[in-house]
Design brief:
Helices cover 17% and strands 27% of the residues. By secondary structure, it is α+β, with helices and mostly antiparallel strands. The strands form 7 sheets. Strands 1, 6, 7, 8 and 9 form a 5-stranded antiparallel beta sheet that branches. It starts with 19 loop residues before the first helix and ends with a helix.
Amino acid sequence: MVPPLRSAPRVLFRPKRLPFWFSARCYAKVRLEEPGPQHKSPKSLGGPPRNLISTLNPSLLVPNDYLDLSHRKWVIVRFPKSRGESTASIWYEKVVHDFIPFPEKSAGFLYFSRDPQAAPLEGYIRLRVTPNNASPSSFHDGHDLLSPSGYPWQIILPQVASRSNYARFRDQLLEENLVTAEELSQSRSLFGHRRRINPEATLFRLTQEFPVNFASPSYLTVVGSKTLHVLRCNLFRASRAGGDYFPWTGSAVVRFEPSTMPEHARRRVVHLRIERIVDRVVSNAKGYHALINEPQEGQLLSVSPRGTSQPWAYDMDRKNSSLAAGLRILWDDSRIS
């Protein structure tokens, strides 16, 4: 009689613990690249590989360039000429050591663009959310995906030039003649040493929009042709007996603009326009009327220094401050007469 075979003993294998940055990246790639139980494999559907797009030029988009990033934390993007592991990694927002997923309906086309009035090193990759799903013809009827601050989600040219995870974007922009090697080199020389680049707080020209919180200072990086200037703006701070304070809470997207008032003729004076309110404005000064009036959407920020309301005006040539120095750089690069 042949004795029954015993099953082989189980061998437990415990891999060596990997560094956090390596294990986190590998986990993200596996989670996003491999189809989950609720998704069918792209190969089984006979379609193109996931996240493979053909262009960043909005005039050359095709239906297969359509991406759905909804609820995903980390996304790997490939292009037809990508070799091996040559990819670009993108994400929505990073908080401390974690990522916030892309919100619902984050679906559309990645594209590179420059504002018609853009400064030399200004440019961005954004996601255009389109109403007709994968139809490139609906591109101009769509809107750019917004970040939590109410400002468009974007990757700016200095990030593309300076960060290794955007190397494939860098190659693609050069292949499509959307940027020049000189622009990338100049951006890298200015930003390559910086540990963090905040695209929302990087200003290239005077009238460029940027997000603000009414209850805290704004830290902005001003980009000149050959220099960077970091400034701390207390645009919404007021003073009273006992010290300084912020009379309003809430947030908005704002921009500087040159004054057109006759009394400011031939002077470099700017106002601040509240383009749109993101978080509701609430008074933070109980029983006290602040010199800074309540910010109103679409209006210039106004103050009441002598009881009469008037637009906030800043003469950059009569001030000796970090804000004045930054505004002078933006004014000169914007070629304002």
